[in-house]
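We examine the record.

___
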Amino acid sequence: MDTIYIKDLEVFANHGVYPEENKLGQKFVISADLSVDVRMAGLTDELEYSVNYGEVSHTIQDFLQKHTFKLIEAAAEGLAAELFCRYPLIRALRLEIQKPWAPVGLPLRTVSVEIRRSRHTVYIALGSNMGDKMAYLKEAVEKLSKLPGSSVKKVSDFIRTEPYGVTEQDEFLNGVLEMETLLTPQELLAQLHRIEAEANRERILRWGPRTLDLDILLYDQEVIDTEELHIPHIDLQNRDFVLVPLSQIAPWVRHPVLNRTIEQLRRELDG
């Protein structure tokens, strides 16, 4: 990925823990490294294929002057979200906010906070086998599309499948969607649990009936194993109700542990 650099942009703004900082204001120095694919811009000499660094610089100034934060950590987080929202070609960024001569009671040149943020591609499985199954799934897609810093890119067909694990229950309606998000895996998991709870999901019996089931299948090429979160999703390669819709929207995506594409895994499961 290519990079556009904005270095040492000076902005006078009002951020700080102390009331006088918010009232009087001071100079802040901002640097941003923007990861953007500028290949087409280089070949065509057209700005529409890149990001206007002058416009970005004004966006940085406007955001920091229109908002007041106690912490430069919060200012950096908010500014990063604003840049991702306004400029969809930015895939990742490094953002540093310096606060020269911060009032710490000691002589110093500057303090600063640096953050790195990026867009993530996530695949989420959806399932329901209680009540109005289609309505539950469609509502989940709508709520996922409205998560902060997120957008739904593709949704598979919803397919009817036999129950997995506990077989004495109604058939499921299953699907998979692809989304892009700024949320971390843990933040996303919390949002999925919230959406399930709003659909009156009850966790009584493992693999039992449920109004709505949302699972993170893949998060970029991350491998995560914690007490509450496993990515890639456990047993993904043995679940046709996941592989069939996932192969419909992302057959080329590679399982980060098994090193085989989703389409290969689906064919292997079919025998």
The mean pLDDT is 92.
